[in-house]
Design brief:
- By secondary structure, the protein is mainly alpha-helical.
- The chain has 2 domains: 289 residues, Fic-like fold; 71 residues, Orthogonal Bundle (Arc Repressor Mutant, subunit A).
- The protein contains 16 helices and 5 strands.
- The chain has a 3-stranded antiparallel sheet with strand order 3-5-4.
- About 1% of the residues have low confidence.
């Protein structure tokens, strides 16, 4: 496919040196019908995989606990792409039991900030009087992402007012220089109009286009990658491609990180939107299938463990009640159990002991005080 311009370079001055900043054209790009036809197979496969994931979500009696786990897994993977180091148990322990290693508190807070931003965004776009998918909502999510962590001093919740760059030690040797700051607001406004406007392209293709456009604009001084990946999930909901927020692409992008960056660059240098869209569709299909298998496996795990617990000698009503709360609280402590079940410490201790004997719970580490317990096999499936 011959190279086609997808934007223009503007000469600007940053820190005393002249650089070429890239300003993307408005969406949608000009795509030949013959080129689009090559995406028919990958598009059908991705749409079918999303439909199967949607069905898996509908078959689950209690969807909330699946979404709870999926959002945290996505937050962890998305933050790992940015270099954050934390485990799923770290995050759940921090949230559920107020326990975390001091050396990784900031990493964990970055992940929990991502969870808060995702939850806020979905709550807003689904509320009758909530904030729609817009620049305003993205600013709100960015503020939540940056709260109290690395980058908190880089204008959280505000569009950048200075030039940023990607790669290199300075703008002059950068891999990519996004648009000058004075162009950012107009470019995002244009992107918002495209999201809410009409287009003959399939919605899933539009999701792929919007993600690239956001990353190209790079509107914030920090957190653009995390917010751009979150935007994919929000767009799937906005265009009605999934009824529940169960698909997140960070795993695919993390596993194919070098290829992902190559495709972003190829759009600017070669106009290769088709290559990017094929890569994107393959990722949607792969992750949707993976999410479907995970949802089914988690449901089967809980069902099997429920039968094991009922057959365990000495099982109490409190133990059963605790088990039913584990999917939403897969890392627990004694104080948490007493609060969740509104019971006494001795009764809570007996319930924990039953679940330990049944092999459902396992102790985390070897603390003598403030002991942590995890729903072992459930977390193993998520990891």
């Amino acid at each position: 496919m011959p190279a086609q311009p997808t934007g223009q370079y503007i000469t600007t001055s940053v820190a005393g040196e002249s650089v070429e900043a890239f300003v993307p054209d408005s969406l949608p790009p000009r795509l030949a019908a013959t080129d689009l036809a090559t995406l028919d197979g990958p598009l059908r496969a991705a749409e079918a995989a999303l439909a199967r994931l949607d069905l898996a979500g509908e078959m689950i009696p209690s969807l909330d606990w699946f979404i709870y786990a999926f959002v945290r897994k996505e937050a962890l993977l998305s933050s790992e792409i940015e270099g954050t180091q934390a485990t799923l148990v770290d995050v759940l322990a921090w949230e559920q039991a107020d326990q975390a290693g001091d050396s990784r508190i900031e990493d964990i807070e970055e992940v929990t900030n991502y969870v808060a931003a995702v939850n806020h965004a979905f709550a807003q776009i689904r509320a009758p009087k909530g904030v729609p998918l817009s620049v305003r909502l993205l600013n709100d999510c960015h503020r939540l992402l940056m709260e109290g962590v690395r980058g908190a001093g880089k204008q959280p919740g505000e569009l950048r007012r200075s030039q940023n760059w990607i790669g290199g030690s300075r703008p002059g040797n950068a891999v990519f220089v996004p648009p000058p700051p004075e162009r950012v607001a107009a470019l995002l406004g244009d992107l918002e109009r495209y999201i809410h406007g009409e287009d003959a392209l399939a919605p899933l293709l539009r999701v792929g286009l919007v993600h690239v456009q956001f990353e190209t604009i790079h509107p914030y001084l920090d957190g653009n990658g995390r917010l751009g990946r979150m935007l994919i999930a929000l767009l799937l909901d906005h265009w009605g491609l999934l009824r529940s927020p169960l698909l997140y692409l960070s795993l695919y992008l993390k596993q194919n990180q070098a290829a992902y960056y190559r495709w972003l660059s190829a759009i600017r240098t070669e106009g290769d939107w088709i290559g990017w869209l094929r890569f994107f569709l393959d990722g949607v299909a792969e992750i949707a299938e993976d999410a479907t298998r995970t949802a089914r496996s988690l449901y089967a795990r809980v069902s099997e463990d429920r039968q094991v617990l009922l057959a365990t000698p000495g099982t109490t009503v409190t133990a059963i009640q605790l088990f039913e709360r584990l999917p939403e609280h897969p890392v627990i402590t004694m104080p948490l159990v007493t609060r969740l079940l509104e019971t006494t410490k001795p009764t809570a201790g007996k319930a924990i002991d039953v679940l330990l004997r049944a092999g459902i719970l396992a102790e985390v580490g070897a603390r003598k005080r403030d002991r942590l317990y995890r729903y072992r096999d459930y977390l193993r499936l998520l990891d």
